[in-house]
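so my prof wants the structure for this chain in the tokens format not the other one, which i didnt know existed until like an hour ago. anyway here's the sequence
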Amino acid sequence: MDKLNCFSLTTEGHVAHLVLNRPEAMNTMHPTFWRELHEVLTDIHKAGTARALVISSTGKHFSAGMDLQTFGSAIQMDDSSAEGRSAVYDLLTDMQRTFTLLEELRIPVIAAIQGGCIGGAVDMVTACCMRYASADAFRPMRFSASKKSTSAWWPTWAPCSACPSSCPWRWSKNWPTQADA
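here's what i got, hopefully its the right format
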């Protein structure tokens, strides 16, 4: 594997530790991030030596999500041509395929979240088997039409689709989509 720019990867005692390592950019997701994440997950899967993967980050926030400045020019919603619509579809499908690799990894994947977990980062940690958050962790609140109903941070217990039913990690923390305040 080539030198990583967005991550650092270590393995100790059969536990792989993938660290988002661009704190100066709040660990945003840009094209290099997607290439490297796809490559790392593929290598971990093929090697078969890790028995678990922990994903964490450096800096104040876990991740601020998509790097809009980088993607601003890459994703031009060109709906005037079939080629433009196809290019946008292909780009977004490739990104989703990377998260699907994370979800389908044959080992438990644990996200360790601190600070902000925003936008695409929420999608990334949702693809993990388990998510653990520090006391300062947050994600944006989504408000419904009712001011009393907000999206809750506190996780509930639900099955993890990435683990087989016999796996002791089968039950993991999932974030609810709505809860009454």
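also thought this was worth mentioning. The radius of gyration is 17 Å.
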